[in-house]
């Protein structure tokens, strides 16, 4: 799909783009390309995006009556 729709862009150009999956609203921040032997061929990462920490929910206190 990428090859037919985005033939003028290289892999690194997709960093910071919205995800290509239709129901995903995320941003592409890390790309890893593997060769035919499942070895990492090249890797791109956008280091400017801040990684979100999991949200900590405040502890719910039980009310004693």
Describe the structure.
By secondary structure, the protein is mainly beta. It has a domain at 2-45. Helix content is 6%, strand content 17%. It has one helix and two strands. The mean pLDDT is 77.
Helix content: under 10%
Read across the widest sheet, the strand sequence of neighbours is 1-2
Number of helices: 1
What is the overall silhouette? elongated
List the quaternary state of the chains.
single chain
Quick structural gist:
This protein has 65 residues and is mainly beta.
Overview features:
E3 ubiquitin-protein ligase TTC3/DZIP3 domain-containing protein, 65 residues, mainly beta, 17% strand, two-stranded antiparallel sheet
Sequence-ordered SSE layout with sheet pairings:
Elements: H1 2-5, E1 30-34, E2 40-45
Antiparallel strand pairs: 1-2
